[in-house]
Amino acid sequence: MSDPLYYLGLAAVAAVVVALVVGIGGFGKGGEFNRKNANKIMRLRILFQFIAVVVLLAYVYLRSKGG
Description:
Blueprint: H1 4-29, H2 31-64
């Protein structure tokens, strides 16, 4: 568990969860915040998801190679 890529993967997944919760919360509440920020937050979530998938794939690949 001392692998820094593991912790980077956890941080990336946490960022996805935070963006998702903020986006869903804003959508549920509606109002001005949702109108201004809904698309930005969901785009940010997609970016975080991409980063998380890349990091997790790198982790799995490197662990399978014994690195």
